[in-house]
Write a structure and sequence with these properties.
With 349 residues, this protein is of the alpha+beta class. It is built from ten helices and nine strands.
């Protein structure tokens, strides 16, 4: 369930944030507009001066979760300004209407906060934010690497040549792969792919070393606890650790499962049930991690495999993996909450 900011203040500041500027609107508790103008992102001293009359009282600043909200959250923290981040998928009010511009959007944000209708997103702590982004970048590079491997396979099939199979993903098996092609352009095409693979391997390895060392400093205990789950190694443990951040931000296991996209939404009206909506709301990285972990857990833990088999008999294989992911997500929540290692007996129940 979405959380809306309900606290009352004397002044509310709405910010429509862009890459080079931010449009600011300040309203008071009565709804009177006190400040409404554009500021350049490199003139924050001017913004702070204009906000100064309101900072001595009860004040809050809010903006929508855009791609570049990090610096604004950090600037607010440095200047002791209360900061709210709006969930982009829930902020329908600023996207509707016949006319839409920066001035209108900033005012709508301020009035949403004032009216208690501002959907709050989690402000991920600055200390671990860059590490989480680096982990996501690693995932991106791994997927590009997989596409490059698939392209090498495709080039072989185009020329009716024996495809190299999965062995090309290992550096020791790449020598002479380009020599299979007589055409100079096709040969260069493959050699470029091989050069990309070498670069991807080097960068991904460097990332993993850095991420593992950082995790041991940030939260070594949680990192090693996650690896007590059968099948969960470095990558999945790092993904779960940094995508969750602090488990205390989830009041209940249901909130956590919803955030990890492990439960479906519901849509009912007048006693009627409609197709579920909101499947894209939540964290896609956690959903991927738990999906992968469920497959590996089924392979490594006999009790999990037996549970999946029982579900498959009643329903189907995909449903069994989904329910295994949910059960694993529930286990991870309580592991991190109680600071305990994985208990395999929960899959025997």
């Amino acid at each position: 369930m979405m959380r809306f900011y309900q606290q009352q203040h004397e002044f509310y500041c709405g910010v429509d944030l862009h890459s080079n500027c931010l449009y600011v609107c300040v309203v008071d508790a009565a709804g009177n507009k006190l400040l409404h103008r554009n500021f350049k992102n490199n003139r924050l001293d001017l913004l702070l001066a204009k906000l100064q009359p309101y900072l001595q009282a009860d004040f809050v600043l809010a903006c929508e979760s855009t791609f570049n909200w990090y610096w604004l959250a950090d600037w607010c923290a440095d200047n002791d300004l209360p900061f709210l981040l709006g969930h982009a998928l829930y902020m329908k009010a600023i996207h509707g209407g016949k006319t839409k511009n920066d001035a209108i959007d900033s005012e709508k944000i301020a009035r949403l906060v004032r009216g208690g209708n501002f959907p709050v997103a989690h402000v991920y702590p600055q200390a671990r934010r860059a590490t989480r982004d680096l982990m996501r970048r690693r995932t991106y590079l791994v997927r590009r690497r997989a596409e490059t491997l698939a392209h090498i396979q495709m080039l072989h099939l185009q020329q009716n040549l024996p495809k190299p199979g999965t062995r090309v993903k290992y550096k020791s098996n790449r020598a002479g792969v380009g020599d299979n092609f007589a055409d100079p352009s096709a040969k260069l095409n493959v050699n470029i792919d091989l050069a990309l693979l070498r670069s991807y391997d080097e960068q991904i390895h460097q990332m993993e070393l850095h991420l593992e060392q950082t995790a041991k400093v940030d939260d070594a205990n949680q990192y090693f606890r996650l690896q007590t789950i059968p099948g969960v190694g470095l990558v999945l443990a790092l993904t779960i650790l940094y995508e969750i951040g602090s488990i205390d931000r989830f009041p209940s296991v249901g909130d956590f499962l919803s955030y990890a996209r492990l439960v479906r939404g519901s849509h009912t009206s007048n006693g009627k049930r409609y197709a579920a909506t909101g499947s894209k709301i939540g964290n896609p990285h956690l959903k991927w991690a738990f999906g992968e972990a469920a497959v590996l857990l089924k392979r490594e833990l006999p009790a999990a495999a037996a549970l999946a088999e029982r579900i498959e008999k009643r329903q189907n294989k995909m449903r069994a993996l989904t329910m295994l992911s949910v059960k694993l997500g529930r286990a991870v929540y309580y592991m991190m909450k109680r600071q305990e290692v994985f208990d395999p007996s929960i899959f025997k129940k």
